[in-house]
Amino acid sequence: MTDHEILQELMDKADVRRYDCYQCGKCSGGCPMADGMDLKPRGIMRCAQIGSLDRILKSNTIWLCSGCYACADRCPHDVNIPAFIEEARYEAARRGITRRDSEVLNKVFVANLKMFGKSHEMILAGLYNALALKPTQDMAALPHMAGKRMIGPAPHRIEGRDELAKLIERAENWDKLEEYK
Amino acid sequence: MIRYSYFPGCATESTAKSTRLANDFVFDRIGIDLVEIKDWNCCGATSAHVLSEALGLSLPARSLARAEADHPDLDIVSGCASCYARLKLANFKVRSDKGTRYMAEKVVGRPYEAKREVYNFLDILSSEEALRGIEAAILRKFARLNVACYYGCLNIRPAEVTGAKDRENPLMMDEIAKLTGAVPVEWGFKTECCGAAHQNDAAREARPLVWRILDNARENGADMVLTACPMCNMNLEMRQGEYVKKRGGKTIPVLSITELLAIAMGAGGERIAIDTHHVPVMRIVAKALRGAESEAAI
Asked: Which of residues 81-120 of B touch A (CB under 8 A)?
């Protein structure tokens, strides 16, 4: 498959027509994360139009997009960029392209779910900090939270933890099946 | 009595303890019965859908399937913008696409037809009936309290899923806040994103999102920021030490809309664990209440 064909497939999945974008830049202008992106939302659409798949998949944009939908909401031509970015991110992951910090957080997040069935922000932040080698990030808030018992040694757990672990496994298998197709 | 299946969200069990207490207090006072979904699980925000579509949809689908089985006659409500977005999207996709419904039911292992609606707190608190209920339950009002109503992005967008009419300048929360005597300020960051989990995994890039929201609230004369999501609330509040160092000036309290309502309905600070806030709230609240009393005396 050529890059254009792969791009077309991702666009179809996202229900986005890439040539609808006429490069007005309203998306980049309103994107709250644009400052940190190496390819702004308008650039993503431009690369999609000219078939520059590689630049999209290797951009930090697909990991920094927070999915706030400001761009999609303001687009005069209803181009749903976050939907396309999501598909591009899945494609990048299938090729083993990741962003380290995102990967660490997402892995810790799912591990948390398997253990508790719920997400515990401070356990999440603690494990993330340890694995991402950022020991001090946000830890200034820890004494306050511990003192007010907002976090504690016995986190809430759901009863259906086994059920949820199986659900997660089935979801992962579903993705592999999709890939196989 | 109005009843909903209730999805509290993980934050209400830890970092948003005061919001949870305020939610329970307020809905009890205005006669809306929230029936907690039995053994609900994390909605997956904000990592699951980043990793996989199947996981991103089936985590919320499990809780929704449970709600549908236990209370087929009740719509669902969540008090967190991220949870709301994930639940609403799962409902929307399962309803509009047969393939997605097949996938969700297979992965979850429970029947799920997405027959009921998913709402957020702003939706249900801004209904006419609820507004009347709030008005009747308010026992004391604030004077000279300027509030910046922060809706967050996902309570409002994407429009085709949420059905929100005004995405740049929504007014539901402003209307609710007005009932307490508070004065909503006009400002530009009502529906800007707080960065969500990027405050963890992309802190350097995401911090300015919070700084800009707080800057704009202060510049427009707000004494406090009101939220409708525990995650927004934490993001806007927890790092204000860092904020003041960067931008100067004073910290600004951040409170959920239900906390403001609870106080106006007579809840003391202790009742809703208001001291769990990182930025102290009570001094400014007490001053606004005293101001109202002295105005009433005149």
From this structure: 103, 106-109
Q: Is the ipTM of this complex over 0.85?
A: yes
Q: Selecting from 1.20.58.100, 3.40.50.1970, 3.30.2130.10, 1.20.1050.140, what CATH number does the domain B2-121 have?
A: 1.20.1050.140
**CB distance B15–A145 less than 8 Å?**
yes
Report cis status (omega within 30 of 0) of the bond before B158: yes
Asked whether the beta carbons of residue B153 and residue A156 sit closer than 8 angstroms, the reply is no
Chain A's closest residue to B239, CA to CA, is: A138
CA distances in angstroms from A72 to A83, A178, B65, B229, listed in the order given: 9, 27, 30, 22
Spell out the per-residue pLDDT of chain B, length 298, in tens.
Answer: 899 999 999 999 888 999 999 999 999 999 999 999 999 999 999 899 999 999 999 999 999 999 999 999 999 999 999 999 999 999 999 999 999 999 999 999 999 999 999 999 999 999 999 999 999 999 999 999 999 999 999 999 999 999 999 999 999 999 999 999 999 999 999 999 999 999 999 999 999 999 999 999 999 999 999 999 999 999 999 999 999 999 999 999 999 999 999 999 999 999 999 999 999 999 999 999 998 888 887 7
Helix (H, G, I), strand (E, B) or coil at B118: strand
pTM: 0.95
